[in-house]
């Protein structure tokens, strides 16, 4: 496994829609997932989308395990989402602070639906459907935004909700 360089805001790779995966269970795909997992853990991320390593493909990894960047967050087992699609959003929404490894040291308070139902494939190409809520739902929405070339700051309601971690009074 290799720790890869994270692509930062400003890079064109973060602004385009990623391609769907057609060939499952390949050595390349397993290697990419292993490297993305290693990279996410190395930088203390709770999720990572392939465009963030400069790969325009619909692959997401996520995991929360006593994360120092999100100390309040519940633990989430390592999960891999390929070609994910959100098929239902709750009407109920909530605001919460988000960070992103492509925008280091910054946070934004973003409003998102509290519950989502999504479907995604695993590395073998098997499709499953899940309903998740809270921070788990937020991570998946944030990472799927990456696959569509969207960064969280595009969803800000106010610039008062955006800034450096060490400067925001409310964070
Ligand atoms: Ni991000």
Q: What are the SSEs and their pairings?
A:
Blueprint: H1 27-42, E1 47-49, E2 59-64, E3 76-89, E4 93-98, E5 106-113, E6 115-121, E7 127-133, H2 134-147, E8 162-164
Antiparallel strand pairs: 1-2, 2-3, 3-6, 4-5, 5-8, 6-7
Residues 100-102, 142, 146 line the site of nickel (II) ion.
What does this structure look like?
The chain is an alpha+beta fold and 171 residues long. It contains two helices and eight strands. The chain has helices at 27-42, 134-147; strands at 47-49, 59-64, 76-89, 93-98, 106-113, 115-121, 127-133, 162-164. It has a five-stranded antiparallel β-sheet, sandwiched between helices. The N and C termini lie far apart (34 Å). The structure holds nickel (II) ion. Nickel (II) ion binds at residues 100-102, 142, 146. Nickel (II) ion binds next to helix 2.
> How would you name the CATH homologous superfamily?
Peptide deformylase
Radius of gyration: 15 Å
Q: What portion of the residues fall into strands of 2 or more residues?
A: 25-35%
Domain module count: 1
Identify every distinct bound molecule in the structure, by name, code or SMILES. nickel (II) ion
What is the typical, i.e. mean, pLDDT?
97
Looking across the biggest beta sheet, what order are the strands in? 1-2-3-6-7
**N-end to C-end Cα span:** 34 Å
The profile of the biggest β sheet is: 5 strands, antiparallel
Instruction: Assign a percent range to the helix content.
Output: 10-25%
Shape: globular
- Fill in the CATH topology: Peptide Deformylase
Q: What is the level 1 CATH name?
A: Alpha Beta
Question: Which residue ranges are poorly predicted, with pLDDT under 50 across at least 5 consecutive positions?
Answer: none
Total helical elements: 2
- Architecture in CATH? Alpha-Beta Complex
Total beta strands: 8
Helix vs. strand class? alpha+beta
- SSE string: HEEEEEEEHE
């Amino acid at each position: 496994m290799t720790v890869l360089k994270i692509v930062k805001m400003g890079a064109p790779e973060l602004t385009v829609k990623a391609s769907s995966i057609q060939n499952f269970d390949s050595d390349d795909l397993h290697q990419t997932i292993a490297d993305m997992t290693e990279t996410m853990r190395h930088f203390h991320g709770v999720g990572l989308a392939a465009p963030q390593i400069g790969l325009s493909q619909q692959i997401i990894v996520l995991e929360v395990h006593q994360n120092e960047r999100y100390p309040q967050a519940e633990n989430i087992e390592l999960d891999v989402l390929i070609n994910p699609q959100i098929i239902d959003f709750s009407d109920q929404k909530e605001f919460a602070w988000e960070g992103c490894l492509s925008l280091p040291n910054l946070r934004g308070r973003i409003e998102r639906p509290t519950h989502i139902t999504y479907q995604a494939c695993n590395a073998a190409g098997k499709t499953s459907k899940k309903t998740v809520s809270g921070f788990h739902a937020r991570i998946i929405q944030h990472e799927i935004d990456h696959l569509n070339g969207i960064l969280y700051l595009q969803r800000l309601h106010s610039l008062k909700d955006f800034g450096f971690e060490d400067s925001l009074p409310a964070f």
